[in-house]
Design brief:
Blueprint: H1 2-17, E1 22-24, E2 40-47, H2 49-52, E3 56-62, E4 65-74, H3 78-93, E5 99-101, E6 112-124, E7 128-139, E8 144-156, H4 162-181
Parallel strand pairs: 1-4, 2-5, 2-6, 3-6
Antiparallel strand pairs: 3-4, 6-7, 7-8
Helix pairs in contact: 3-4
């Protein structure tokens, strides 16, 4: 309990001590190969309002309280960044360069469509990053639902700071890609 309090105070102290705005991007774990392979379309991806209505990183300090710092922002639109990293990780894990983000032009090149609804994506007072997402895999040619799951994933934040939070969130997206890959 004491370590949770220290972590929360550290995040807030870092937020208040910073004098300039900082921008963050999620990063994929690997790059898809440049060669063709199975066609995978990622999207649409939807996100909880608290994630898309403002550009700031979010930290949950108690069960009913979210904290943000106006000095720590996403470097782009979070939904697009999340989709880009998920698509890249899926391409890497499935050894395909034939990966598209929604909306795509030519559906006939794709075998699967993956839709995602992100319900939680933030840091916690426990010293973790959390990702809760419901996702579905469809076979495009037949419109058949192949899998429908909800994944609740946690990743330890290895050090204090918002950059470490984003690194942990990037690892969570890789874990989500691994869960989806098992269904393909």
């Amino acid at each position: 309990m004491f370590s949770r309090l220290i972590l929360t105070i550290s995040f807030l102290a870092l937020a208040s001590c910073a004098t300039s705005r900082n921008f963050y991007l999620l990063s994929p774990t690997g790059r898809p190969p440049s060669t063709d392979g199975i066609g995978i379309g990622v999207g649409p991806v939807t996100m909880a309002d608290y994630l898309v209505e403002r550009p700031y990183l979010v930290f949950q300090s108690s069960p009913n309280k979210m904290e943000i710092s106006d000095l720590h922002e996403w470097g782009g639109e979070l939904r697009n960044d999340f989709t880009r990293v998920l698509a890249s990780n899926l391409g890497y894990q499935n050894k395909t360069g034939n990966i598209r983000s929604y909306p795509w032009d030519r559906e006939n090149e794709l075998k699967y469509q993956i839709t995602v609804d992100v319900r939680q994506f933030h840091g916690t007072a426990d010293g973790d990053a959390i990702l809760e997402a419901s996702w579905r895999v469809y076979e495009i040619a037949t419109s058949r639902l192949i899998a429908s799951r909800t994944s609740t994933l946690r990743e330890a934040i290895e050090k204090d700071g918002f950059e470490e939070l984003v690194a942990a969130q990037s690892r969570l997206i890789d874990q989500l890609a691994a869960a989806i890959t098992k269904e393909l």
